[in-house]
Amino acid sequence: MNLFTFDDMKNIKRKTLGDAVPLELFRSVRLIGMYQGLPMKGKNTTLAVGRKIGESMEVTSLEEALQLFEELKIGIPRVIEKNGSELHIAIEDCFCEGLPVHEGNMVCDLEGAILEGALSPIYKGKIHVREVKCNVNGDAECEYKIRFS
Ligand SMILES: [Zn+2]
């Protein structure tokens, strides 16, 4: 039994400040707090955190998961290529867009883990999401490869 569900997160009753927080706060939690603040750039933690969040979303299809990615303003997914066991997607307007480039750093692993967690119940765990490109690394856009196996 979970103390909080994703649906609980939608119950927002702030009268003055509303339902949004600035992107710099999200980025600060992600990049200053987690990426910089945790051992190994938060690798294991982001995976656990992302998967848990994704699972709580209870989506029922790949399309719904990608749509939610956009609704939550993480970024706008676009399919680049699809073959039998792999889906290659790019993320337009990723939350990391505009940050300074630091080659060798890909910072959108948690968001990929959210996707993996959201898709995991649909594909009975036989799914793996890997971040392959990132704006922060100097790439033209952020990209993930989703492997179904
Ligand atoms: Zn990104």
Automatic annotation (TrEMBL):
SMART domains: V4R. Gene3D superfamilies: Trafficking protein particle complex subunit 3. InterPro entries: NO_sig/Golgi_transp_ligand-bd, V4R. It comes from the Bacteria. Pfam families: V4R. This is 4-vinyl reductase. It comes from Anaerobacillus isosaccharinicus. The lineage of its organism: Bacteria, Bacillati, Bacillota, Bacilli, Bacillales.
